[in-house]
Amino acid sequence: MAYQDHITKMGELIQSKNGTWDGINPESVARMRLQNRFQTGLDIARYTAAIMRKDMEAYDADSSKYTQSLGCWHGFIGQQKMISIKKHFGNTDRRYLYLSGWMVAALRSDFGPLPDQSMHEKTSVPALIEELYTFLRQADARELGMMFRDIDAARAAGDKAKEKTLLDAVDNYQTHVVPIIADIDAGFGNAEATYLLAKKMIEAGACALQIENQVSDEKQCGHQDGKVTVPHEDFIQKIRACRYAFLELGVDDGIIVTRTDSLGAGLTKQIAVSHEPGDLGDQYNSFLDCDEVDASQVGNGDVIISRNGKLLRPKRLPSNLFQFREGTGADRCVLDSITSLQNGADLLWIETEKPHVEQIASMMDRVREVIPNAKLVYNNSPSFNWTLNFRQQVYDAYKAAGKDVSAYDRDKLMSIDYDASELAIEADEKIRTFQADGAKRAGIFHHLITLPTYHTAALSTDNLAKRYFGDEAMLGYVKQVQREEIRQGIACVKHQNMSGSDIGDDHKEYFAGEAALKAGGVHNTMNQFG
C-alpha cells in the first residue's frame, strides 16, 4: 500500500471514532505502519521464500545470476551487512544471510563455546533467526524514519519537487529483510524432533532450511573427521518433516536444502533396510566394505547381508559403526543428491574438503544427467586454506602443461616469498572468479561463507587490542576505527541513531507533541559527526 493510501485509510478510521481519536495523527500512523511492514515471522518467511524462488528461476535462465550470503551470529552483524550492501550496491538483490550452526554452537550457547556437534540448545537457532529479523526490521525503521524527516524538512522549505521525490522513494523502498538460509544441523533428533524445530525456525522467519545426512547423535562439523551418515530412508523422513512444517504454516514455497557429507564420511551407524535387489536400501548397502563368508564362518553377533547369492559380512568397528569402501564418497554424494531431489528437496549442498570447481562439477554433472536443473548451495568455507589450495592447483596445472615449476616448492606455496610470483597472481585471480566459475560450470546457485564475521571480529579485535593497550593508546582507536568510520560513511559512527534513539524521539513527538522531551537536541554529542 502506498504512503498516501495509508494516510487516507487511517484518516477515515480516526474520523469514524467521532472525535475520540482526534489526538492521533493519520500520517504518523502511516509512518509507523511502513516502518513495521512485517507483522510476524511467517510474513517474512512467505516474502523471502518468493524472493528465493524468483532467484532460482533467474539462475536457471542465466548462471551469472547466482546468489551469495555471509554467515551471522548476532542480529547486529546481519543488520550491518545489509546496510553495507544497500550503501555500496544500491539494493539487496541476490544477497542473503546464512545462519551457521557452527557459529550458534561456538558463540550462542549457554554452555559456552562448543564444537559443531549439535550439543547446543536447539532453541537458540530459531531465537537467532528472530533476532536477525528484529535487527533488519529496525534497519528499515531507522532508514525510513530519516526519509520521513527529510519529507518534513522539504515541506517546511516549500520544496514540492523534493517532497515528491522523497515520497516516491518511500513508495519504492526496498527492505533490508532478505532470505536467511538456516542450518538445522541433522535435525536434532528423530523426524518428529526435526518437524518441531523446523516449525519454530519457520515461525521465526526462515524460508530456507538446510539439513544434513549425518546421524544426529554423532553429528560432526562438515570439515572434521568421524562423520557418520544415515540410510536414505531415514533422511527422507526428515526432508518430509521439514516440508510438512512449511505446508502446515502456509509457507507453500519454502525451500529445503539437503546437505550430503558422504564425500568425507566413511562410516554408517545402520545397515539400510532392503526389500529387493537394486532398491534404495540395497544401493546404500552396496558401498559397505564387506568380506565374503560362508555359513560356517558366521560368528556370534555377526551381521550378515545377502547379495547375489553370496553372504557378506560388513566390517564393523569397535565403535559398532560400519565402514564404507574407500573411494566411494563421490558416488555416494551423487546418489544422495539425486535421491534428495527426487524426494522433495529444492537445493543441494555437497560438503567438500577443498574448493575445486572441477571436483564439484564432476559430481554435479552426474546429478544433472538425471535432474537437469539441479542446483547447489556451496560452502566457501574458512576451513579451507584458500591461498594454499589455489596455489597448488595452479602449480599442478603448470606441471601438467610442461611448464617449469623449479622455482616453487609445492609444500611451501603459502610462503609470503611467493606473493608477487606469476603463480600466486594467477591463483588469486582464480580465487576471485571462483564463485562465477562455480556458478557457470558446477551448477552453484548460492555461494555462502559460514564463518566470516567470526574471523573478522577476531582479527579486528586483535589489531585494536595491540594498538590501544600499546603505545598508540587512544589514538589506536581513533585512527583505526572512528576516523575510518567517519571517512567511509559507516552508519554506526552515530551509534545513538543506530540504536534507535531518533526513532524514539519521533514516537515521543507523536505521543506528546510539543511536550516531548527528546534526546536528539543541540547538546547531543552525535551532532559532532554531521
Describe the SSE topology.
Blueprint: H1 3-15, H2 26-34, H3 41-61, E1 67-72, H4 75-89, E2 95-99, H5 101-107, H6 124-156, H7 160-171, E3 180-183, H8 191-204, E4 208-212, E5 228-229, H9 232-248, E6 255-260, E7 267-268, H10 280-285, E8 290-293, E9 305-307, E10 310-314, E11 322-323, H11 329-341, E12 347-350, H12 357-370, E13 376-379, H13 386-400, H14 422-432, H15 434-441, E14 444-449, H16 452-468, H17 474-488, H18 495-498, H19 501-512
Parallel strand pairs: 1-2, 1-14, 2-3, 3-4, 4-6, 5-7, 6-12, 13-14
Antiparallel strand pairs: 7-11, 8-10, 9-10
User: Could you tell me the radius of gyration in angstroms?
Assistant: 28 Å
- Number of distinct beta strands: 14
Could you tell me the strand content as a percent range? 5-15%
What is the rounded distance between the termini?
A: 34 Å
**Structural class by secondary-structure content:** alpha/beta
What is the average of the pLDDT values? Answer: 93
What does this 3D model show about the protein?
The protein is α/β, with parallel strands linked by helices and 530 residues long. The two termini are 34 Å apart. The chain has helices at residues 3-15, 26-34, 41-61, 75-89, 101-107, 124-156, 160-171, 191-204, 232-248, 280-285, 329-341, 357-370, 386-400, 422-432, 434-441, 452-468, 474-488, 495-498, 501-512; strands spanning 67-72, 95-99, 180-183, 208-212, 228-229, 255-260, 267-268, 290-293, 305-307, 310-314, 322-323, 347-350, 376-379, 444-449. The model has no long low-confidence stretch (mean pLDDT 93). Helix 4 links the parallel strand 1 and strand 2 (95-99). Helix 4 (75-89) crosses helix 6 (124-156), helix 6 (124-156) runs antiparallel to helix 7 and helix 6 runs parallel beside helix 8 (191-204). The protein has an 8-stranded parallel sheet.
